[in-house]
Design goal:
With 194 residues, this protein is α/β, with parallel strands linked by helices. The chain has a single domain, classed as P-loop containing nucleotide triphosphate hydrolases (Rossmann fold, 3-Layer(aba) Sandwich). Helix content is 41%, strand content 22%. Strands 2-7-1-8-9 form a five-stranded parallel β-sheet, with helices on both faces. Strand 5 and strand 6 form a beta hairpin. The protein is globular and about 45 Å long.
Amino acid sequence: MENTKIKKGKLIIFSAPSGSGKTTIVQYLLKQQELNLAFSISATSRKKRGAEIDAQDYYFLSSKKFKKLIKKDKFIEFEEVYTDNFYGTLKKEVKRLRKEGKNVIFDIDVIGGLNIKKQFSKKALSIFVKPPSLIEMERRLRNRKTDSEEKIIERLAKAEKEMSYANKFDVILVNDDLETAKNNAYTVVKTFIS
């Protein structure tokens, strides 16, 4: 019987403030077959937005269930982003994808991204997607039409703080032109997994 060792995939972390274009870039990269990427679906206790689908966009959990999983140490990382609004990466999700030999891509908040990088070190590449300015980011958030005025103000305040962490990431990718940002992201990821 032949003993073939399964090659575990690498981890690619995309973090950014809301409205930076990170999700659009991640979705583009997922379509590039040669990168062998699989999306790590995060868990959250927030309500669904728009046409989001459970177990595809996020694992939508109640706050109570999320807290129960925290106590059972089921997350690689988690954060209470806003009061009673949790986000986290389930250990079993990442383990499953890596076991399949996939390179795991994360679309995750800044603190969560840094926590994954700390745990996986050289097996992980952390990329911070930076909007060209806070003014442009505000415009993008408003054009989404998914958040209340109160939520937009909250996101902008959080973004200012998140921008201060940019230099802790392996790569800072400025998204002032989406096509250029996608191409730059592709080159950085391709180089890392090669």
